[in-house]
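Field log, afternoon session.

UNIT: design team B
ACTIVITY: writing a sequence onto a fixed backbone
BACKBONE:
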């Protein structure tokens, strides 16, 4: 199994989508390292590096359907915030981050869709 990828999943353990992503990765023969998004929330610098690695826009990192997003009224506030302010906010509220985030240090996926996982992580 030396050809397997070692993939870190930044996730919320109780999240059913995160569980499905982990299961999918393991079934494809990948070695999975779990990281709790609340206990070990990514720093602003880590989030920025993940965005750059994946070529994503910052707004892709926000869990717009989550409680914290609504409680903080971010729908109206994000437009006037700087990139640094947004990254700092995300790094302070793990549940504000869209999950799961999977990375092997070369590529990144945000969220979980089986077809996309098969495309990105399916080659073990």
């Amino acid at each position: 199994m030396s050809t397997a990828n070692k993939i870190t999943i930044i996730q919320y353990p109780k999240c059913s989508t995160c569980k499905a992503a982990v299961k999918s990765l393991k079934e494809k023969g990948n070695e999975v390292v779990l990281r709790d998004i609340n206990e070990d929330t990514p720093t602003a610098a880590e989030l920025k590096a993940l965005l750059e690695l994946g070529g994503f826009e910052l707004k892709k990192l926000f869990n717009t359907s989550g409680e914290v997003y609504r409680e903080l009224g971010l729908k109206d506030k994000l437009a006037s915030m700087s990139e640094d302010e947004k990254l700092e906010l995300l790094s302070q509220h793990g549940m504000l981050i869209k999950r799961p985030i999977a990375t092997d240090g070369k590529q990144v996926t945000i969220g979980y869709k089986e077809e996309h996982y098969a495309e990105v992580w399916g080659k073990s």
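LOG NOTE: The radius of gyration is 14 Å.
NEXT ACTIVITY: expression trials, pending approval
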